Amino acid sequence: MEGKVTFSLHDKCEIIESITEEIEEFMLWMGSFGKQEEGGVTRLLYSEAWRDAQLALAAAMEQAGLEASFDWVGNLFGKLPGTETNKTSIMTGSHVDTVKNGGMYDGTFGIAAGVIALKYLKQHFGMPKRSLEVVSLCEEEGSRFPMTYWGSGSITGRRHVEEIALLTDENGISFREAMEAAGFGSGTLRDSRRQDIGAFIELHVEQGIVLERKNLNIGIVEAIVGQRRYTIEVTGEANHAGTTPMMWRKDALGGASGMTQYLLNAAREQGAPLVATVGRFEVKPNVANVIPEKVIFTVDVRHPDATVLETFCHRFLTEFRKIAEEQELHVQTHLWMNASPVNMDKGLSAKIERICKSHDISHLSMASGAGHDAQMFQHICPSALIFVPSHLGISHSPQEYTSPADLAVGTAVLIELLYLLGYKEEEI
Amino acid sequence: MEGKVTFSLHDKCEIIESITEEIEEFMLWMGSFGKQEEGGVTRLLYSEAWRDAQLALAAAMEQAGLEASFDWVGNLFGKLPGTETNKTSIMTGSHVDTVKNGGMYDGTFGIAAGVIALKYLKQHFGMPKRSLEVVSLCEEEGSRFPMTYWGSGSITGRRHVEEIALLTDENGISFREAMEAAGFGSGTLRDSRRQDIGAFIELHVEQGIVLERKNLNIGIVEAIVGQRRYTIEVTGEANHAGTTPMMWRKDALGGASGMTQYLLNAAREQGAPLVATVGRFEVKPNVANVIPEKVIFTVDVRHPDATVLETFCHRFLTEFRKIAEEQELHVQTHLWMNASPVNMDKGLSAKIERICKSHDISHLSMASGAGHDAQMFQHICPSALIFVPSHLGISHSPQEYTSPADLAVGTAVLIELLYLLGYKEEEI
């Protein structure tokens, strides 16, 4: 037994062989929930496709020999109970929701790898000493409601039900309504807040091009960038497109497109790693022969240094107000997401590095340009974030792709890390 | 009898007194069809509100003693048959459709004034020698489908059913589907094409600020500007807002907002009377944390000189392609409306001027910056376009307003013109 447990490179290859097909099938199966004609996947929080996916995952967890259960907000857990019941749980997993017409791997991979890892460990080593759990987090993207990390935030106490009271989606459906329609937010379900998590490990696709360009298998994330998201509302005056001379117009779109141009140019001047994006852009009344009265658009800005981020945001908000004033427009800005940069746990990262080295798995310590659920868990327990390559770095798109072999290497690293923590009781 | 018929100024005041309240009530009543919470009116072609309005108008026409009938596309006619049946009809009216959340007066006033004028004439002078008709045209704005002047175009042979074959609204409903759902486009209705119209007179709110600024009652339109409308489709690459460095992006919104800025600046440099508008702007996938893959927007350009219009459009289209190339974006442009400038009938305009002078009604000969149904009729018969003031020039907006007194003066002028043509048989 003892000989078997610290994998040799040969054992790692065996693991990878034995799980490559399984992980590929699991990913394709999950990709069928919310499949779009355009080729992508859409699983917005509490939608029908989202609900179908969570219920199917619960069944798959039971099939894998795990105890499946939902919490109040709709997070799904698959548990392998530890023999030493006084110990905290080791948790792995990621989010089940997607952006509109997004990819098959973002979020989903971390859940699939977790289920397969726990199944593998139970089959080969029986029950762990420390409880091991895989979680399918209900929401991370903020694609349906202006709210991100609803799943991990509810578990870690960083999100509260009061925050959703006034939120509605683009069809005017309230957050609460949607949650209850999906069967959650009711008293019979267990409270989402957890105090018994000893460590959190998230496996995720890089959503960038670094690992592929450098031809590496694993990225060990040291820090996650800080990011801010704003809603900007520009108000002018609706008027006739033919009879209103240019100089008498109060064109909300004229102002909003100028602000967008300023933001993108300023981000280019600032240079990497700063990124700024206008992703959402709504015009009212949105008719060809009417001068737009209102434009509501979003701004997403990210940088690993809190001060640089702060300074840049102050700068573009000042310019937006100036542009509005010059054009006799009214502008309102609303900061609805403000995540500080987060450093991941050094101890866990060192273990992952050790695993990679001992099995000659090529790896790199790096920063993440995207936010991830692991940053929420880092506030309550040591947390790690492990990347596998993304082909061409394309993500949030139907073209998102990672080869089954790359997925399997990441899963193998997760299996060994969970083994060390759950069965060998290595100190976290 | 003869003494009464050529109105003295005193008679004009009597008319105005007698119809001011009636026109005000009629306008408020019409404004109730498609009334929006935001305060405006929305009657998109073949919608439920549109259908309710047409059916209610048909009843109102019968009540006014007119013969009401619909044609194949849903134009509604109220006829006062002439005693001399060999003569062509004199037609007045305007369009019943509105833009999204538009005003109460645009189009509607021309219909209301026509019904009230014909009712007044029948009551005071009995049946005319030449047939008089008021028409409630089904569509002019192009707000639901990329198709304008569907009503007047079908009557004058400038629009054909083949042109709607592929058109759908923003919800994917086909033009044909919508028309049939509203009860039109069926063989049992009479063909829309007319060959028996002797003259067309349209009464309309100015939708501009000239008459109010100059404190004048009536605008006599000599020419209508030419206009072009395009749909511009910019395609880039959807990608992750956090992990994609600025220099590697293919941001469709970055390109489209730059094109919008270029267009508006070029229009300002060109100077009045040229106007250019981006009224509609759709982003895909339209999510805060995804770099936009596609933007589809409209461009509306107008000028009374065909050559200036042509040159300006060529210039901005060239620049759009240049911007797309520089940013590695793909751009497609589609011209879906191309209306040449139109001169209105000099003879009818002279009659209107004579009526105004003889009754000391302040007036101005002017150009129209907006397209109107009268320009379609001018292709098949002498046509006139008469403006009344628009408060602050605001139009296509809930704030659109013209005082009942101004509406009544315009209606009185229409009554006298119809009297001269229908009863006095003045040459057109």
UniProtKB/TrEMBL annotation, chains A, B:
EC nos: 3.5.3.9
Binding site for Zn(2+) 1: H95, D106, H204
Record's cofactor remark: Binds 2 Zn(2+) ions per subunit.
Cofactor dependency: Zn(2+)
GO molecular function: allantoate deiminase activity; metal ion binding
Keyword Mitochondrion in record: no
Domain of life per record: Bacteria
Binding residue positions for allantoate: R229, N289, R302
UniProt entry keywords in alphabetical sequence: Hydrolase, Metal-binding, Zinc
Residues holding Zn(2+) 2: D106, E141, H396
Gene3D superfamilies: 3.30.70.360, Zn peptidases
InterPro entries: Amidase_Cbmase, Bact_exopeptidase_dim_dom, Peptidase_M20
Protein name: Allantoate deiminase
Native species: Paenibacillus validus
